[in-house]
Amino acid sequence: MQHEWSTEDLIASWTLVGEDWELVGNKAGLTRLGFALLLKFFEIESRFPQVKNEVPSEAVVYVARQGGVDPEEFDRYDWDGRAIERHRMQIRAAFGFRMFTRADEDKLAGWLTREVCPVELRDDQLRQALLVRCRAERLEPPGRVDRSSVPPALPLSRHFATAPSPGSAKCLPSGSKTSPTMTCWSS
User: Fold this and answer.
1) Cα separation of 47 and 133, whole Å?
2) Residue 170 clears pLDDT 50, i.e. is over it
3) Where are the domains of the chain?
4) Distance CA 143, CA 127 (A)
5) Which of 82, 113, 145, 147 could form a disulfide with 141 if both were Cys (CB 3.0 to 4.6 A apart)?
6) Contact by Cβ (8 Å): 57, 33
7) What is the pLDDT of residue 144?
8) Triad 106, 109, 111: Cα angle to 5°
9) 117-145 burial, b if ≥16 CB within 10 A, otherwise e?
10) What's the pLDDT at 59?
């Protein structure tokens, strides 16, 4: 998610329109603001923000004005409660997305091995390919997969051999168990 937004970009990307207002419904105050920001963030990124400060402050102010809510209310929006889970569920449903599952993990790991790792070795491009694939399959991406330097939270170790066979491409995880990254090579 970009951090700097021009007025034109804010209007184009963060303006609540007809269907958005139907989803916002009768929510009020910080619930209205939190939901609206999650909705627009998801519309732009096809994923939810992991932390509040991932939502651009200009967008918070802009969306708050549209909803008649003080932008400071966003600081009180609960990122661990039932409300945000319910909001995420409503937003996924509105966009026709679903949560990432273990079966999706297996399927995407196989796809990465067959289709992406043989031709792409850069971690940021691997993450981008995974995000594009999740969007195409209407999947909320797993964990902390984003366009920054944050490694994907897709535990791939059980999908790959410890050494590549001649003429094959392999993806292997590297890094810690809590934040694995992928290393790909061809032999």
Assistant:
1) 13
2) no
3) 7-95, 102-186
4) 12
5) 145
6) no
7) 58
8) 110
9) bbebbebeebbbbbbebbbeeebbbbebb
10) 95
- Identify the residue whose tokens are 């184009």: 12
Tokens of 139: 């999947």
Question: Given this model, what pLDDT does residue 108 score?
Answer: 85
Which residues, 6+ apart, have CB-to-CB distance to 138 below 8 Å?
95, 96, 97, 98
Distance from chain centroid for Cα 96: 15
Render pLDDT for 34-71 as a digit per residue (tens, 0 to 9): 999 999 999 998 889 988 999 999 999 999 999 999 99
Amino acid at 4: E
Does the predicted model carry a pTM greater than 0.85?
A: no
Beta-carbon count within 10 A of 75 CB:
10
Q: Give the pLDDT of residue 163.
A: 35
Res 145: pLDDT: 54
For residue 187, CA distances in Å to 17, 29, 65, 174, 184 come to 52, 57, 56, 18, 10
Q: Quick one: which H or E segment has residue 169?
A: strand 169-174
The 8-class DSSP code of residue 181 comes to E
Token digits of residue 34 = 């939190």
Q: pLDDT digit string (tens) for 90-111?
A: 999 999 999 888 888 888 888 8
Ramachandran assignment for 67, one of left (phi > 0), alpha (psi -120 to 50 degrees), beta (any other): alpha
